[in-house]
Write a structure and sequence with these properties.
The protein is built from 2 helices and 7 strands. With about 100 residues, it is of the alpha+beta class. Strands 1, 2, 3, 4, 5, 6 and 7 form a 7-stranded antiparallel β-sheet that branches. The two termini are about 15 Å apart.
Length: about 100
């Protein structure tokens, strides 16, 4: 799978997506992960945003994509953090969590 995920691996190698042992998830920008998954061949089939009841600001969301060449499914769930901080990201490919390094 590693060779098929060159763009997503590139985010890790460049430090744009880092593992948080404390949160057991990735820290990064959802838009960069969407773009990397798209570059790796995943076509978006679902994107939903969640918002705060108090002020309607986005607080997280879900994204899913399918790679038609491999029939793999990628899922991304993110939780927004306070302003100017990257989100916590939970990434799965074919039901397997993307492991931290």
């Amino acid at each position: 799978m590693s060779e098929l995920m060159a763009s997503l691996n590139g985010l890790r190698e460049q430090g744009q997506m880092t593992w948080s042992e404390h949160e057991q998830g990735w820290i990064g920008t959802p838009g960069e992960v969407f773009d990397a998954l798209a570059a790796d061949g995943f076509h978006e089939c679902k994107r939903e945003m969640t918002s705060s009841r108090r002020d309607c600001r986005p607080v997280g969301g879900v994204w899913q994509g399918v790679n038609p060449l491999t029939n793999s499914v990628a899922s991304l769930i993110w939780v927004a953090r306070p302003a100017a901080q990257p989100a916590t990201l939970f990434i799965e490919i074919d039901g397997e969590g993307l492991p931290g390094l």
